[in-house]
Specification:
mainly alpha; rod-shaped; transmembrane helix; transmembrane; DUF6090; membrane
Length: 251
């Protein structure tokens, strides 16, 4: 192509058609510029498409994380609700003479640590990639940060509750409350209730239901009716999934 243009220019010069030569040269320059602009435009389109596809990959990862988070949220919410009811039953029985051993398996898990753990791998990958800058100022960016910051607030509340339980639980195993261990052995299937006399078992149960530290734990758990935060987190997560789907529906 270049050789053809050069030959045309040479012929124009030889024919002493200078004005036509300059017009042709200008036209040739314009064509070259247009070609360069087209090439740059195609390159920019390819880069944008590449960025778009990579961003979509990161956001799809977040969407999958949130869908698995929803399962975990449902599990922890149901657990908290059961423990809240069991704790309320415990508090109720502290004012009664009847102390059912059947309640022990329901309250014992309260002493273990429970946390909601959401999968943040997709969010971390997006932040580390730098592609999150492409979402700056969008509703999707706001929704993503809102979801994970709200989760951190929930985690702080759970940490506060778990630390309180752990500190109170430490006093359950000193000499003053040694009879309580009998109840735990029964619950943990380390021993059968039949291995204890009815008198010893009732004594242990009475100690359990009149234990100030255990009562403190159960009163705290009975008052922790913040189940709505789990539903709020699910709602925030669903908003992200919807926005991501909408973002790439036209692809």
């Amino acid at each position: 192509m270049i050789k053809i243009f050069r030959r045309v220019r040479q012929n124009l010069i030889l024919e002493n058609k200078t004005s036509k030569y300059f017009k042709y040269a200008i036209g040739e320059i314009i064509l070259v510029v247009i070609g360069i602009l087209i090439a740059l435009s195609i390159n920019n389109w390819n880069e944008k498409r590449k960025t778009h596809n990579q961003l979509q990959g990161y956001l799809n990862g977040i969407s999958k994380n949130i869908q698995s988070d929803t399962i975990e949220i449902n599990i922890i919410k149901a657990l908290r609700e059961r423990q809240n009811l069991a704790a309320k039953d415990y508090v109720k029985y502290t004012y009664m003479d009847s102390m059912p051993i059947q309640l022990v398996p329901k309250i014992a898990p309260i002493l273990g640590e429970q946390y909601l753990n959401v999968n943040q791998s997709g969010f971390d990958a997006l932040k580390n990639s730098g592609y999150i800058a492409n979402l700056q100022g969008t509703a999707l960016e706001d929704a993503i940060y809102d979801y994970y910051s709200y989760y951190e607030e929930i985690h702080e509340s759970e940490t506060s509750l778990n630390n309180f339980i752990e500190n109170m639980e430490a006093g359950l195993y000193d000499g003053e409350y040694e009879d309580v261990v009998i109840v735990y052995k029964v619950f943990a299937s380390l021993k059968s209730p039949n291995e204890f006399s009815k008198k010893d078992l009732q004594k242990a149960l009475k100690q359990l239901y009149n234990n100030s530290k255990m009562l403190g734990i159960m009163q705290r758990v009975a008052s922790e009716e913040y189940f709505f935060v789990y539903d709020s987190l699910k709602t925030k997560g669903q908003k992200i999934v919807t926005l991501i789907k909408k973002e790439f529906d036209n692809d």
